[in-house]
Amino acid sequence: MRTLGVEEEFLLVTPEGRPQPVATTVLRHASTTGRADDDEPGGNLEKEFKQEQIETSTPPRADLAELVTEIRAGRSRTDEVARQAGARIAALATAPQVVESSVLPDRRAHTIRAEFGATARDQLTCGCHVHVSIDSEEEGVRILDHLRPWNAVLLALSGNSPSWQGTSTGYASYRSQVWGRWPTAGPTAPFGDPAGYHAVIDELLGTGAILDEGMVYFDARLSSRYPTVEVRVADVCLDAEDAALQAALVRGLAESALGDPVSQPRTELLRAATWRAARSGLTGDLVSPLTGKPLPAAEVVAQLVEHVRPALAEAGDLEWVERHVATVLRRGNGAIQQMGWRAEGADDDEVVRRAVDRTLSS
């Protein structure tokens, strides 16, 4: 069975709930408390672009229950290290407050800030990245092409960024709107085969619009570090099990990609579907990958589950996925939960404090 790994980016915040630029200090503390099994990938804290955020990752796991345990353990471990720097972690894809964030004291980060101006300045955003193992690049590219129409549904399920710079945006995932300003971000055209994939990367590098291959920010890409497909479309999830749901659905899509080829919609239509998912998340319509027409979000999510049902059943994930999809549709994604807290009277700082609790208790 394919292994899965989950990378999560978190905000570093004060106990009172305000973003705090202490990533360098947190990483210094983390360097003295590494995992026991340093030969296995994942499990360590890593730097991100800004001082107000930190990234952690799980080791690769084939069993979904074990993956959930690893996600929770990673959150707990990261928060423990952050506490040593006087901070906490919050699984929020954007900070609700007005924030002037700062880049890491790193040459590449400062080069990006200088080259990309306001796009770089605004990038205090946190995502959830799923890695699913592949046997070859041929298989990986087939999976990338198969994922194209379904990535927007994954985004809708994960939406967790309704606020930006002190205002309510009206979006479930405003992170995706901010992230989409990078020159390589978003949906891609079909690649066809590894040669086609690498030709696109080479041509992008040849434009001079990006510094290096690390700035290939497609919704899904071949990992440059591991033999995996890396799906990067989702907001970081408020609830740990929602991150595991992303992983289970990605694995289901990866297995489903090995069947008969599917029709490939134009990239312009996928951009529209992605915008729709970012705007309304689970509270309105989504664009159906099967028809290209709007349908209530719950119906489109059901289409995704039905599409991957045989793969989920074979992996032993079907019952858990069906149960947790029902939970998400009933309870709501992170954006819906945040707006519920607002309705109860929570201000920006209180939203962050509640998110800290939810990050570690879910």
UniProtKB/TrEMBL annotation:
Signal peptide (residue range): none
InterPro entries in alphabetical order: GCL_type2/YbdK_subfam, GCS2, Gln_synth/guanido_kin_cat_dom, YbdK
GO function terms (MF aspect): ATP binding; glutamate-cysteine ligase activity
Keywords: ATP-binding, Ligase, Nucleotide-binding
Assigned EC number: 6.3.2.2
A GO BP entry: modified amino acid biosynthetic process
Reactions this protein catalyses: L-cysteine + L-glutamate + ATP = gamma-L-glutamyl-L-cysteine + ADP + phosphate + H(+)
Cited Gene3D superfamilies: 3.30.590.20
Family: Belongs to the glutamate--cysteine ligase type 2 family. YbdK subfamily.
Role summary: ATP-dependent carboxylate-amine ligase which exhibits weak glutamate--cysteine ligase activity.
Name of the protein in question: Putative glutamate--cysteine ligase 2
